[in-house]
Amino acid sequence: MGGASDLDAVRASLAARYGDGAVPTIAVTDTILEQLAHRSVRAFTPRDVGDDEVRAIVAAASSASTSSNQQWWSVIAVRDPAIKEEIRALAGGQGFIAAAPVFLVWIADLSRAVTIAREGDRPTGGLPYLETTITAIVDTALAAQNAAVAAESLGLGITFVGGVRNNPLELAALLGLPHRSVAVVGLAVGHPDPAEAADVRPRLPQSVVLHHDRYRDATIDELRPTDADLRRYFARFGRDRGWFDSVLSRIRGPEGLHGRHRIREQLDERGLSSR
Ligand SMILES: Cc1cc2nc3c(=O)[nH]c(=O)nc-3n(C[C@H](O)[C@H](O)[C@H](O)COP(=O)(O)O)c2cc1C
């Protein structure tokens, strides 16, 4: 990077991401510029995503760091329209799940660890602890995010789908998941429909999320500009909502969790416990 037009591109990307709170300068690479341009894509053209692209995406996922190299994740690439339709129904009825040519289901997966232990009849008393479950879920999320960045670098569009946790037991049965595994998040992947009414969404300024040496509480006045940024963003697409609305709607009560308030018992049942 270096030319004047490059600098303009960086400034424009930062302004889209941070609104008025844009940081004045950053060291950018092509990777960072691509990450700055991320937006969730929920409308796809009919064009397929090839198996070679899926393999490239999964190679990127496999390259993510993984706690102690345990590799406690798996991914299911769902193309079958009937299965995608069932996932859509279980995951909040979100139409783009079935419309995406490929829907990747990211699985926290302790089943291979059990296979290894069984082989030598070795103890597995560390499995039921919350730390083990957290480790598997963190590994899975890191792999999925690497996959998302890889897909976007291929010109594909993605949206994560937490809705796969709305009905985790039914989804596990549908996908034939082994005991000690559970779907953590889905990733709809396809070619972006350029007509989709969406753009880069503003985020909290770095003055709020980046702390130096010690944590500093943000005041409500420091949070208000992000609410206003998001309200302006949604107004562009004819929607009347701000950022506070989505935060308040999520935390208002168990009903804001889309059925996921039962997740602890369901994880227990799947063999990912929280002792
Ligand atoms: C773990 C996770 C779960 C998500 N689940 C859904 C979902 O079920 N449905 C959906 O439309 N978007 C979902 N999203 C996408 C977010 O809504 C989106 O990332 C956020 O609004 C910011 O928008 P952007 O990605 O376009 O910047 C999810 C994102 C993450 C990280």
Characterise this structure.
The protein has 275 residues and is α+β, with helices and mostly antiparallel strands. Helices cover 47% and strands 11% of the residues. The protein has helices at 4-18, 30-36, 51-62, 81-90, 95-99, 111-119, 130-153, 168-175, 206-209, 220-236, 243-251, 263-270, and strands spanning 73-78, 102-109, 157-161, 181-190. The chain has a four-stranded antiparallel β-sheet with strand order 1-2-4-3, sandwiched between helices. Helix 3 (51-62) packs across helix 7 (130-153). The radius of gyration is 20 Å and the shape is globular. The mean pLDDT is 95. Bound molecules: flavin mononucleotide. Flavin mononucleotide binds at residues 38-40, 42, 94, 159-163, 185, 201.
Number of discrete helical segments: 12
Number of strands: 4
Bound molecules: flavin mononucleotide
Described by the principal axes of the CA atoms, the overall outline is globular
Report low-confidence residues grouped into runs of 5 or more. none
Q: Give the termini distance in whole angstroms.
A: 50 Å
- Biggest sheet strand order reads 1-2-4-3
Fraction of residues in helices?
Answer: 40-55%
Task: Bin the strand percentage.
Answer: 5-15%
Mean pLDDT: 95
Please write the string of helix (H) and strand (E) elements. Answer: HHHEHHEHHEHEHHHH
Largest pleated sheet: 4 strands, antiparallel
The secondary structure category is alpha+beta
Rounded to an integer, what's the Rg over CA atoms?
20 Å
